[in-house]
Amino acid sequence: MSESVPSIKLTALAACAGCAAKLSPRELAHVLQPLAASFPAAEFPAMLVGLEAPDDAAVYQLNEAQAIIATVDFFPPVVDDPFSFGAIAAANAMSDVYAMGGEVLFGINLVAFPEHLDTAILSEILRGGAHSLRAGGAAIVGGHSIKDDEPKYGVAVTGLVHPQRVLTKGGAQVGDVLILTKPLGTGVITTALKRGVADQADVEAAVQSMMRLNRAAAQAAQAVGVHAMTDVTGYSLLGHAREMASLSHVDIVLSYSALPWLQGAQRYAEAECFPGGANANRAYYEPHVTFPEDLPHTARMLLFDPQTSGGLLIAVMASRAPALLDELAARGAQGWSIGHVVEGDGKLRVEH
Catalytic one among 5, 19, 20, 325? Predict the structure, then answer.
């Protein structure tokens, strides 16, 4: 952060730091139900992905070779450094385009900012957002701002994909291997930060992970050829895995011992640094999950931990999984094999 920018604890201004202030999955399902019926697919044949089978972004076909991807995301600060907050928020919004297999074209800033804060802080937030867009080969082309007691920032993102190469949550097939491209634990770490108990090294590692774009990972998935993809964000690993399982009409088995964690995440979980979103996720998704009886409470709760700018969850044919891991590494991205797909009807099973 520039020396001219006032020092302030941004997370103290956020009502729900660490959980991205999302509606609970139950609330969201309730409010979206009447909307889906208002836009039947038959009346919008060019809408390849809309509300009928909810996904990470909308996809609208322009012609035989091009489809537009549209998405939006914004939230209050999860870290204190304004530049990092802006970069994380933009990376998180861009991730929905990457989760559909596309490339980002441009973004439009969304800003809510308190009157009492120095506008130099807002300049740094916007500079961070612009940094992420530029790193993704895209541009910021405008925006909209309002005054609000709580600072919030995000980006409305437009991307492009070939209509035949759209990747959705609903394509996972029996026998697929599941690959995760970022470690988990941002929710407990950012909550520990807000409570003043986080180690700076742990926060810095989490910030670097959240700022990392999912672009290279998405390009690797397209290069190898995969069946389904989504990004892991506010509804936790189990929440997003449940969506993939349900829309694909399969069951998913996850190996707890194979899961990658950000440094400090398990320690903060033991200290019960869970954001409120973890409990909301648990209430909605736990009925669809089978755990080992001896899996500790903190381990279970970590699986419901809301993520900010998390990695991609990719379902790939088992025979292509090694090639995907190699392609991820070649592009400077990470990858862990964390589970597999079996026959079923949308349930999850966690194993040791």
Answer: 19
